[in-house]
Amino acid sequence: MEKIPVVQDYTPPFARDGKFHVRLTKGRFQNLRRLSSWPMLALFFGLVWVQVDGQPWLMFSFAQRKLILFGNALSWHDLPLLAGLMIAGACLLFFLAVAWGRVWCGFACPQSIWTWLFIRIEDLTEGRASVRARAENKAMNAERLLRRSAKHLLWIVLATLTALTFTGYFIPMRELVASVLQLEMGAGVAGWLVIMAGLTYANAGLVREKICLHACPYSRFQGVMFDRDTRTVSYDAVRGEPRANRRNADANSGDCIDCGLCVQVCPTGIDIRDGLQAACIDCAACIDACDTVMSKLNRPTGLIRFASEAQLEQKPSPLLRPRLAGYAAVMLTACSAVVYGFTGTTDLLVEIRRDRGALFTQLDAQHVCNHYRLKVESFAPGESLIRVSVQGEGQFELFGPEAINLAENNATWLPFRVCNQQSLPARSPLTFHFQGRQVHATKETTFLTQSI
Question: Which InterPro entries would you find in this protein's record (predicted)?
Answer without folding.
Answer: 4Fe4S_Fe-S-bd, 4Fe4S_Fe_S_CS, Cyt_c_oxidase_cbb3_FixG, Electron_Trans/Redox, FixG_C, Ig-like_fold
